[in-house]
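Researcher: Please translate sequence to structure tokens.
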Amino acid sequence: MKTVRGAVALVALTASSQLLGCRVDENDIKRWETTVHGPTKLVAVIEHDKYAMPLRTDAAMTLVAMPQRAGTRRGVQLLTGEYTDDDGNARQGALIGLSPEARKQIVNGMAPELIKQMQAPPPAHKDGEPIPADPSVPYKDAAYALLIHEPALVTDQKTHDDLVGALVTWSQTNFEDRIDNPGQQFGVEQTMRYLGASSVKGLPTLINENTYRLDRVVGLIADIGDADTKAKASQALVDLATKLESKDWVDATTKMVDQHNKDAKVTANAQQLAQQVSKMQDSKLSQDVFPAMKRLGGKPVITYLLNYASNAQNNKDRRKLALAALEGHVDKGNQAEVDKLFSIAKDDSTPDEVRDLDFMRLGELPREMLVPRLYSSFDNKKWKVRWVAASLVLKTIQPKDVPEFMSHLPQSPATPMGISEPVGYGAAFVKMESLPASGGPKIRDVLTPYFTGKAIGPKVAALGYFWDGKKKDIPAVQAYANDSSPLPKCGKDDECGWECGVAVPGKPDRENKVVTTVGEFVTSCVIPSMDHE
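Model: Translation complete:
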């Protein structure tokens, strides 16, 4: 069986011997671009050193420009890849087997024409119509294939730099059309990731209200952009968000939507028109801008998001989006940013849904920075604020730290406290049983003194340890069934009433029963939940 090298040599020799029978010129090269066996003849010209370099270079460029055959462009593969020839033999691209000097001369000769063709203006694209064929694509693909090949096909430094520069310019020109153009062997994103930071320097200028692929623009900048490019993109996102909420944008969009309604013969009153515009605004902010901010971050974005989330005048859903977009971006060493997060959590006017997201961001801070500040929020008028803050504290501490935690819980029943607190705290205590042994006390031993303590908050929190527990522990809990200590009292607006579903003889469903003492909490709530073996 012939080796691949032998097959290549044989095919090349056969093809070249046929070509040598007559004079080959530029006209032949051009004609072979569209003939059935033209590609084989063009490869032979490139590989045979008896042809002049200009003709061999012309043959290489003709392969690049060669139209699709059976729906596929083969020129780049015939030059730089691996393929099967007309006789079924495995072959390497024409440039690969050349001597280093011959390859250098041909590649250097190709470069100016590749660059020239890449500089051609892109075709106009009308909205709503398919992206038109871009005649520069084959030349871009060829330049990219030459650059990425291992071992190197481009050995001249100037040629290398010129091709890189041309690809950078090409990638940033008409970016939104080219990144979605399907007629490429190597996508724009793939090309830009190879080229690196220089290829995305111009992308921040594309960030505006009309950007179609904001996610792709920002994703590339976030992944490969240098610090300066990322900073410019971060500011551009802030400028875009600010514009989308401006009166000028609302007024202009209202006129546009109103005209669209009239053209479509849709009747909309002023309120309906305002709702249409608001939905457009929400869509751009929630689906495009805030996700892009989360992807990129940067000082301008972080400052904007913190200020936006802090502003009680802003839509609460958008405030939540702003806090969600801050994930992983808050500078733990920036005290002003940390203070802003805590101020949102402690503000009585902050909606619960917004505060929940804020506590999630706080949870990303180091324990030594987080826990002392969380304890300071335990005295908030809303018990739910303490509940969320306490739940976050419990995720960061060990059994030895529980006494300090208990000292910050309500000491008197006069302080509102919801039944969700002891249930949630108890579950967190149970999880501490599985913490790695560190020589410290066991959680149950730490909780035991609080079962009979006077402070109501620590007492019900400790008893919450048995919630949803094992049957074998019921006798231990039963000991507190007669505890007459009053449970915390809640006002009408506190939403923390103490009640549990209890079984009623003769009825299939449980009925809610209000509990007022620790004993009732034990017998009606805790013990009925202890059904695990």
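Researcher: Any highlights?
Model: The mean pLDDT is 91.
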